[in-house]
């Protein structure tokens, strides 16, 4: 049994040969008789601008739920919530299993590559480390010359004239 609806103006309840009842967008309920007495698109109780909706068996389930008893409503939504929760749990489990399998495959690949690297290192003779080609004592061909150093002495000039040292 639903919560009884009543007109917020005359407090009348729906009866068999009754006028229709309307729900306003501001949340008030009126019978057709009282609604016709008021101004169009204005609530009789709070005087705010509103729209109206006829209450009937064809009214959307969301609107009908406003007039359901709380125990019935809680059972309905508790069942829906349980179904949603079960679906999401199964989904999470599938996703977890997928990632767990993917991690296992990656770990296996890492293990194989590590073994291959160890085998390659066992076959290869140890390499001698060579000093870096540019030590602090050697000069880089692209280094900036100091003020004392002749700017042209660190570069070889390819000219057709002999240099002063050659003459």
UniProtKB/TrEMBL annotation:
Question: Can you cite a GO biological process for this protein?
Answer: reciprocal meiotic recombination
Q: Name one GO cellular component term.
A: synaptonemal complex
Q: Does the keyword Iron apply?
A: no
Give all residue intervals belonging to the RING-type domain. 7-47
One Pfam short name: zf-RING_5
| Gene3D superfamilies named among the record's database cross-references | Zinc/RING finger domain, C3HC4 (zinc finger)
Q: Where is this region: Disordered?
A: 125-145
**Matching PROSITE patterns, A to Z?**
ZF_RING_1 (PS00518), ZF_RING_2 (PS50089)
User: Do you know which CDD domains this protein is assigned to?
Assistant: RING-HC_RNF212
Q: Where is the composition biased (Polar residues)?
A: 132-145
Q: Would the keyword Ligase turn up in this protein's UniProt record?
A: yes
User: InterPro entries from the entry?
Assistant: Zip3/RNF212-like, Znf_RING, Znf_RING/FYVE/PHD, Znf_RING_CS
Task: Tell me which UniProt keywords the record has, alphabetically.
Answer: Ligase, Meiosis, Metal-binding, Zinc, Zinc-finger
Q: Which GO terms describe its molecular function?
A: ligase activity; SUMO transferase activity; zinc ion binding
Name under which the protein is recorded: RN212 ligase
Q: Which organism is it from?
A: Oxylabes madagascariensis
């Amino acid at each position: 049994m639903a919560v009884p609806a009543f007109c917020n103006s005359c407090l009348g309840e729906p009866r068999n040969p009754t006028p229709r009842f309307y729900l306003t967008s501001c949340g008030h309920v009126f019978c057709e008789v009282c609604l016709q007495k008021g101004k169009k698109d204005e609530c009789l109780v709070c005087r705010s601008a509103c729209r109206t909706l006829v209450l009937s068996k064809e009214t959307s389930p969301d609107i009908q739920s406003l007039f359901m008893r709380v125990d019935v409503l809680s059972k309905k939504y508790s069942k829906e919530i349980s179904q949603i929760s079960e679906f999401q749990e199964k989904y999470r489990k599938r996703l977890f299993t997928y990632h767990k399998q993917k991690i296992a495959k990656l770990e296996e690949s890492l293990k194989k590559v590590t073994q291959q690297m160890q085998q390659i290192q066992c076959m290869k003779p140890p390499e001698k480390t060579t000093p870096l080609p540019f030590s602090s004592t050697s000069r880089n061909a692209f280094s900036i010359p100091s003020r004392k150093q002749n700017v042209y002495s660190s570069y070889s000039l390819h000219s057709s004239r002999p240099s002063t040292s050659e003459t």
